[in-house]
Every structure is written in C-alpha cells, then in structure tokens.
C-alpha cells in the first residue's frame, strides 16, 4: 500500500515538473523576421526609413510602423489616427491591417502607427513594396508607399 502511494506521488510530481517545464519553455517566433525596414515616400509629408514590427498569435497578427524620417503633419492625440496598412502576398492578393492605435504626437514628431490588426494564414509571405499605408489624421489623408522591397525580406507567418 505504501509502495503504491509513493509511486503515485512520484508520478504526480514528475507530471507537475513536466507541466512547469512546458510553461517556462521559450516560445518560438511565429513570424520571421519580426522586424523589417523599408524606405517610404509619403508625398508632401516626407519620406525615408521606416521600421515595421510584426507579431503573430495563430491567425491574428499585428504590424506596427515607426519612422523618424516621416513626421506628423499636425499634433495628434493618442489613438486618434485611423490607419490601414496593405501588404502584398507573395501568392497574389493583399492582406490589410487596420486600427486606431498610435501614441500622442506633436506636429513634426516622428510618426508611429499601430499595432494594426489583421488576419494571416500559415505560410503567408507579406511584403510592404507594392502596398501602402493610409492614415487619416483629422480629415487629412496621408498615403505612404515603399520605394523598394523590405529588408531583410518579407514577413513569413507560421
């Protein structure tokens, strides 16, 4: 009887350790690369280098764009810019990321939009070149386009 209790206790302890090990195991990056850079042109609002940062959780993904080269045309409050980022799929078509997330920015501050939310499928390969970022700021429409392919390459989702 004591042997059964000891074996059961040992089995429970081993199971608990295995579960704890899984809980603390590092998670694999679902999207690669996680960051990419582009050169963007935003017409009269400026242009230059921008960084795209992507995350993924299942079929949900987000992309955030930041650029010290592209400047806010007017002061804006947090979460007041409506943004639509269109990325081109390697297999054809596009994927759209949308949202109203942004930090507060003074006129002339570096632009940041996101995280913008979208839906992806396993194996999607998405590129900024050929797509666009459209932002509406107090009724002012700003459209930015990549002037070349993103580096180090397209986002590939798991």
TrEMBL record:
Report keywords, A-Z: Signal
Q: Which InterPro entries does this entry report, sorted A to Z?
A: TAT_signal
Query: Where does the UniProt annotation place the signal sequence?
Result: 1-25
Official protein name in the record: Uncharacterized protein
